Amino acid sequence: MTRFVLCIHNHQPVGNFDHVIEEAYQNSYWPFLESIARHPAIKLSLHNTGFLLDWIAEKHPEYIELLAAMVKRGQVEVVGGGYYEPVLSVIPEEDRLHQVTMLSDRIEELFGKRPRGIWLAERVWEPTHPSIIKKAGLEYLVVDDYHFLKAGLRKDQLGGYYTTEDQGNLIKIFPGNEALRYIIPFKTVEEFEGYMRSIDNGFFTRGAAAIYGDDGEKFGVWPGTHKLVFHDGWLERFFTMIEKNLDWIKPSTLGEFLDHEEPVGHTYLPNTSYMEMGEWSLPADASREYMDLMEEVSKWGEHGDKVKRFLQGGTWRNFLAKYPEANWLHKRMLMVSAEVKKRRHTKSDALQEKAERLLYQAQCNDAYWHGVFGGLYLPHLRTKVYENLILAEKIAVPGSELPEIFSSDIDADYHEETVMRTAEVSLFLSPFNGGSLFEFDYRPRGVNLSNTLTRWPEGYHYKLERHARGGHDDSGAKSIHDVVKVKEDGLEKYLKYDSKRRTSLVDHFFPADFTLDSFYSGAYAEEGSFAHQRYQKEVSGGNLILSRKALAFGKDVSVRKEIVFETPNTFKIDYQVKSLLGSFNARGFFGVEMNFLLPCCDGPVCKYVGKPSFEDKGGLGLGSTGEVNGLTELTLMDSYTGVKVRIELDTPAPLWRYPVHTVSLSEGGFEKIFQGSCLLFLFNAEFFRKGGFRTSFRITADSLSP
Predict the structure, then answer these.
(1) Could you tell me which of 639, 559, 545, 637 has the C-alpha nearest to residue 592?
(2) DSSP string covering 121-145, please?
């Protein structure tokens, strides 16, 4: 008798568009549950993340009713996890326990039974996990067989579950079968039956179970799968085949398996996730080399399989090194977590519960990393994480009219950041990185107006360049990892890269032949040593002064910028740029770069409003490109979310602007994504003839009138 264990994981990230979740429900979640309900002999271990479970309970109670009936008759076992699908190893231990316990409570509330097992987000395993899982009252989890291979086990030894422990806290771990993940639902039902026959005939030397654990979105959401799985009848044939072979195939939930089978061994798994995650988490050049190596090894047949067993890419935490935006988001989460916990020591009320819920939502893993799925590259996911963090922080630290100023190494990079925070605005500046501004929060709406993403190179970009040179057949249903599609022609021309992280208040000195095209492409040389260089910091009377002395146009020059809050939502940056050794002739420009992202990105309700107006000089949309002279005021408006930021200049200046686009992979293929508006205010460097000049920017964050 061969056991077949079917475990499905359904997840939608916090902040995803409602219509996207609805489409996934109609194309996958509901038809899958309906289908399996018609086959009572088929058993299922099912995990829905807390956010998705709440969405379904509100929008589609019929799903909850059907699932509850299936749980009651023993056909379905509901699996727990972190409520908002965090990567458990990178959130504070207290938050881990709360997230897991919250979902267990919710499952018991809806279905009358507490879960026994946990779905591990992105299968990111670290050896300390058994302690927190045990402490949360759970006993098992599912990871990939890849994890076990990294521990030195062979595939033929993975026909059952193993035990492991941390500090004596014993749990059970199931190896999800890689072969099944590529068979279901992409190969024929007959191939599945043949694979099951091989198990029944003694393929495994330890145990005799086929354990499948993977995403439910493979059944209807991934490209081509809805037609294959439902319209073409794959899933119905699959369940029918199992029912016809119940004399030798025994469907089982994970919990039933534990109740009737002994462990096949004891092991300790290394830090790892699934194989593709190891590829994605590597730096771009290493990722490309890893892909090439894996492709080469795959040609070696049986010998290649032996080699692949010992190959591993990076680890999930490397995303925090690969993308400084992800690292900053993560460290801001830790900062807010500490602030929320500190409030708990003095207040326990409805607001505290709200702050904790917002914090936990901000720990949803998707926006902290990037692979084939958009993740970090999707502005609406980053926007939602920041919204939850900022609103939670506003409860924990309400702020006042006068700015609170403090410095701390928030992002754990060995250099302190400086924070200026009022009741309405928070500014996070880096003296080490050019005295630049890299988080600008409008606190009443929970908006980070600096939530831009840098144009980073990716190891898979060569696939787009290769695709542009020749055609590919991407018809039919395939594993998402094998699809090479483009959502629009000409994407390769957007493969431009930035040398440094995008921030605001970046101080540049440019040559006289500098152009907007060269600025966009990064094909220019700095004439000064100020952009992204270390500035000195001074706090004086509630103001922050950032200054640097260095060369510009070959001369000794100083740049000084003083940040002053005039009201809780308005601050001014007073610039003083001067020669340190008398006047001189300079041919070129001094420029101040700013990068902004409004919640609605470059949607039709977002626009620039300038004085003078520049509607006829490139358009008003935040995705427009152009130049305008003599600008004295600029407002970026988002009419949908009701947020705006206004910039007032006391010295009229040319403004150059362009949209920041990245090219990344998603479920549907390569796509261009708007990541923000880059603004460059230019001042002719002839002011050095007079020794220098002063100018100021007044910046106000506000809500649009209803």
Answers:
(1) 559
(2) GGG-B-TTHHHHHHHTT--EEEEEH
Residues 6+ apart with CB under 8 A from 571: 420, 425, 427, 563, 564, 565, 698, 699
Give the residue numbers annotated as catalytic, written as ranges.
122, 215
Domain 2-265 has CATH 3.40.50.2000: no
User: Measuring CA to CA, how many Å separate 271 from each of 3, 97, 373, 425?
Assistant: 29, 20, 22, 40
38's CB contacts (< 8 A; 6+ apart) are 239
> In 3-state terms, what secondary structure has residue 676?
strand
Q: Is 519 helix (H, G, I), strand (E, B) or coil?
A: helix
Over the stretch 325-357, which tens digit does the pLDDT of each residue have?
A: 999 999 999 999 999 999 988 888 999 999 999
Domain residue limits, the chain: 2-265, 328-398, 402-706
- In tens, the pLDDT along 59-83 reads 999 999 999 999 999 999 999 999 9
- Going by the DSSP 8-state scheme, the letter that residue 146 receives in this structure is H
Q: Is 1.10.287.630 the CATH classification of the domain at 402-706?
A: no
Dist. CA 615–CA 621, nearest whole Å = 9
3-class DSSP assignment, residue 235: helix
- pTM, two decimals, is 0.94
Report the C-alpha gap between 397 and 565 in whole angstroms.
18
